Structure formats: structure tokens, C-alpha cells
## 1
Amino acid sequence: DVKVTQSSRYLVKRTGEKVFLECVQDMDHENMFWYRQDPGLGLRLIYFSYDVKMKEKGDIPEGYSVSREKKERFSLILESASTNQTSMYLCATTDFMGNYEQYFGPGTRLTVT
Amino acid sequence: GNSVTQMEGPVTLSEEAFLTINCTYTATGYPSLFWYVQYPGEGLQLLLKATKADDKGSNKGFEATYRKETTSFHLEKGSVQVSDSAVYFCALSDGGNSGNTPLVFGKGTRLSVIA
């Protein structure tokens, strides 16, 4: 079974802090994704990566950056957290794009106060 | 660009009722279509998929048929259970024809089933 783990289930940070969300997968998948999930807005893609050190912007990259130094790990960074970044963050992974399944982690609920 | 529209929720049903959650899409080419489910406190997981027109995906009593003529992929279940309470997401992929293109998700439909 594919396992996708996220570093925290719940996180509370203060405005202006630098925040790191970590995602690790154990299936040697090429592609990894970061989404945020908000009520009424569904899932919105922040960034994705199709290879080590490669990254592509998604639909809402502003205020975020990512890092992929190793194949199994994909980090989402909030350079200076703001209250409008309070959300559920979901990591996902897949071996191929297209008609292949994406595997999701359990999510990190981030609250910025 | 590609997009997915699914019916807004929340949907509340009694146990053993019939479920339909509508999903329509806009895409160039011939996308693959998916339904994902998110149970409370968890990430999303694949429920079923269909990769070409007229294919029917099925799993756990849920079914959806890829209808190219109506650009639809409606989710159905004949008799829902309390354990089906979750958020359901319709999604599409362009099949990789354009290279590394992530899935496009609908906004999700929350289903609550009451005993």
C-alpha cells in the first residue's frame, strides 16, 4: 500500500511566522502535489513537482514556495504566514499523470492567528 | 481550460435511499474521469474511475458512467448507508496528452446519511 504521511495533523502558527509543512511518500513516485482545501472552494492546487528539484506553479502559488530535495519528500513553505492561509493542506502523489490514481495524505489543518 | 462542475451540497438522505450526485465536465480531447471520497478526518481516496466513453466505474456499490455526449459522470448508489457520509469529489485528467497535467477537481459535495 502507498503511504503518504504529513508531518502534523494540526498546527497553530502566528502571523508572520515561517511555516514548513512536510510530506513524505514511500512508493518512489515521481509526482507530488500540494493542495489547500477550503469550504465551498474545494481543492485548489498550490504547487506540484514531477521530479527532484523541479517544481511547477499551480492555481494559487502566491504566498507559498516548495522544496523537493529528495524524491520522497515534498515541502510546502509559507514564507510569512497570514490569517488567510488558515486552511486544510493536503499532499498527494502519483507515479504518472493522466489516468492514474493520486494518493493523498491525511491533511494538515493549519490555523494562523 | 478543463473544468468540473458538480452539484452543490450538502445532500442529506435517509439510510437506504437512492443517491445521485451530478458531475459535468469541460475538457479538450478525451479525459479520464474520477470520483474521490473524503471520509471525516481523512485525506481523499479514489472511489472509482473511467478512462473512456461509455465505461462504467464501480466500487462499494457506487457506479458512474462516462457519458461523452452529455459530458457527464454522475455518481449513483442504490441504497446508501450511514457509513457513506463523506465529501465526494469529481475530477478529470486529460489523460496525459498534454504532458504533466494534474487532476482538475470539482468543489466537492458533502453527503450526510441519517439512520
## 2
Amino acid sequence: DAGVTQSPTHLIKTRGQQVTLRCSPKSGHDTVSWYQQALGQGPQFIFQYYEEEERQRGNFPDRFSGHQFPNYSSELNVNALLLGDSALYLCASSRGGPITSYEQYFGPGTRLTVT
Amino acid sequence: AQSVTQLDSHVSVSEGTPVLLRCNYSSSYSPSLFWYVQHPNKGLQLLLKYTSAATLVKGINGFEAEFKKSETSFHLTKPSAHMSDAAEYFCVVIPRDAGKSTFGDGTTLTVKP
């Protein structure tokens, strides 16, 4: 059983560009959450998708957007990249719905470097 | 609103001695609480979780944590540290009606031989 997978592993972009990161959840999971982890800090919650809709959102600007597909996979898009967007981007999957333990399984992350 | 405070940014212990990593939280709603471990260049791994059942929670690799509502704490302990326990540890709170995760800043555990 594959766990949470993310692509690409590493990415280098230039300021002002746009980037798309991808995530496939663990089998049986229908909820995907995205996090930004800057060097030396804890992950910061960006948003969560369930049933193809954004269910929760953290304190991130509208430059950060996402999408969830019918197969529960998800994309994170970041527009107009800033140097401060350089970070490890983590995807986590869980079982959603009205009864959930919120137990999340994390992927290995995508390391984004903005130059 | 919710927040998590990990009271120590660095903890250093000798191999074979007890480990205590401290976490205090605040939450407007009854929370679910988690501890995750992150080894260098590895993904986050769930150690244990509290979701309103027993207040003393046992996790993997000999770790356990006790939920104390009166003290709003969820400290992580292990009776005897192993070299392989050296890693970054994160305490996480999720309000049960909201689903929005908040991570602490992390505690770096160093284990000396």
C-alpha cells in the first residue's frame, strides 16, 4: 500500500513565476491538507480539501490556491513567487467526513527554492 | 483560536535516561492532540494521538503522552532514550469541530552516547 506521494521532490523557480505541486493521498483517504515548512520551523497549515472543495484555510494569501480531483489527489498552486516562498511543502492525507480522528499521514515533501 | 507552545526548543539526554518533551496548548474547542517526529531528510511520522478516549496515550517506539485538561498540557515521555530517537518532535492541536491543524515550533532531541 503506497503512502502519500508528492511530486516533484525538488524545484527551483525564479521570483514572479508560478508553480504547481502535486500530491496523491494514501489509499482510503479522501482529505488532503497542505503545509509550508520553512527552515527550522514547524509546518504552517495552508488549506485542506475534502470532496473537491476547500474546507479550511490558514493565513496564506490568495496567491496560494489548490484543487482536489475526483480521485482525491490534489494540487497546490503558488502564483507570483516570492523569495519567502522558499520552503518544504508538505502534503498530508486523512479520512474526512463527520467522524474523523484527524489522523494525518504525511508525504516526503517538495523542496521549493525561489531565486 | 488555537495555539501550541513547545516549552523547550532543544532537549539533550544521555542514552538510557528518560525523555520529557513539553507541550502546552490552547483551543476554543475540545481538541485532538498529536505528536509527530521528523528525522533529518525524512517525512513526518505519527508517534501518538489523543482523541478523547484514555488520557494516557501509548505510541510507537516506547513513547507515551498524558492529556491533562486542567493544565492544558500534552507532554511526551519515554522511559529510556535510544540513539535513534534523535530527531525533531512536533506537538499538534486540531480543534475537533474545525479540523485546522496548528503545529508547535518543534523540539530538537539530542541523545548523547
